[in-house]
Design brief:
- The complex is a heterodimer.
- Chain A is mostly beta strands.
- The mean pLDDT of chain A is 93.
- By secondary structure, chain B is mostly beta strands.
- Chain B has no helices and 11 strands.
- In chain B, strand 4 and strand 5 form a beta hairpin.
- The chains are: A mainly beta, B mainly beta.
- Chains A and B meet through strand 5 and strand 10 of A and strand 5, strand 9 and strand 10 of B.
Chain lengths: 113, 118
Amino acid sequence: SQKIEQNSEALNIQEGKTATLTCNYTNYSPAYLQWYRQDPGRGPVFLLLIRENEKEKRKERLKVTFDTTLKQSLFHITASQPADSATYLCALDPSGGYNKLIFGAGTRLAVHP
Amino acid sequence: EAGVAQSPRYKIIEKRQSVAFWCNPISGHATLYWYQQILGQGPKLLIQFQNNGVVDDSQLPKDRFSAERLKGVDSTLKIQPAKLEDSAVYLCASSLGETSGVLGNIQYFGAGTRLSVL
């Protein structure tokens, strides 16, 4: 069966450390993968998109990797801040085409001062 | 640029009643999505419109849910009659669409409507 798995347990880290979130998928061949941030009571907000032929993508303190052999994406936040506390969702296109996303359940990140 | 607008923000109804949600996407966005998000889960696609045509409604419970996109802009999602398990946040999102390549699938979400069915 097709699955997208993110760590269901909350990730607690100290301010200033690097947070690493994992997204694993099964029986999909996505052309790209996206990461979104969701705060309580708000809709998801797009952060980064990485294509299947890209190994790594960076944006300010954010870094995403995409390993199509391992069927895994890692999302890193360096020098984390309490303001980074939120739920992070990974999403992929299920058919290698455009225009549709399947979302994981998300991982809640809590950054403590 | 104005974002995706949704209303109402909250709705409480009793089971077997009907309810409707409204969404106004970002101007110029061809694709509109409705998602259901149950607490602790990721958004689940209910229906996807390309302009005013339905692209995917495979996970829409058609015996009780219906949706339309008027003139390819605004959209409404209706539930009739509601069940207890429909309690969730209903999210609307829009994107530029496939004619804009991969970046056309970046989705912009509204704040959602929180539905409680008692």
